[in-house]
Amino acid sequence: MGAGRIPAERRRRRPTKSGVVLSEELIVDRALTLVGQHGPEALSVRRLGAALGCDPSAVYRYFHHTDDLLLAIADRLIGEALDGFAPGADWVAGLREMAHRIHRSYRAHPRIAALAAYRVTRRPHEFRAVDTGIGLLRRAGFDAADAVRHYAAFVDTVLGHAALDAAHLALGARQRVADEAAWTDAYQSVPAEEYPQLSAVREQLPLMADGSFDRAIELLLSALAARAGGTGYRP
Q: Which Gene3D superfamilies match (predicted)?
């Protein structure tokens, strides 16, 4: 099927054989549920049709293909993150809250996060996120080029950590426990003559299991604050 959004006339709300009225929102809801229960392989038109109680072809009235649906799901995660977000005058606080909101949203859907975090959705929620983030950086005094570059560094850092932490959550319980215990087990027994630096910080190595999202964001925000103060846009 061709590129672009599905024409409105093809997205008429009509009930399925089971009486369900299809909509883009309902399809995205059901897709998120399927992936959450069964993993990314569940994102198929056939399985969606079965879950919705409709002919799989009905999904194509709303989405060109499964990748089109994936982009809509990715945009939904951004929308959930930004719901109710209204940054105040403090641009650093605004970026910090934005980062934590995105991180929480992706962790809430760990089995879809790794598929969605690196995509560009070209949809309204993403437009709003980019507009908001760049606006906060322009408020800080950065010129247009630096605001865009710094926002790219900011959002890539946030999404990278979100995808990493979500992937960890998506592991089986045994794998998760084994990975977390490595810092208090395997790393504690490495020979000092082969790994002198690990030996020197042995008692602190369990900190590696805590995750680095908070520290990475604070380091990035500190660096941005240190660079801020130009003559750029200020509302």
A: Homeodomain-like, Tetracycline Repressor, domain 2
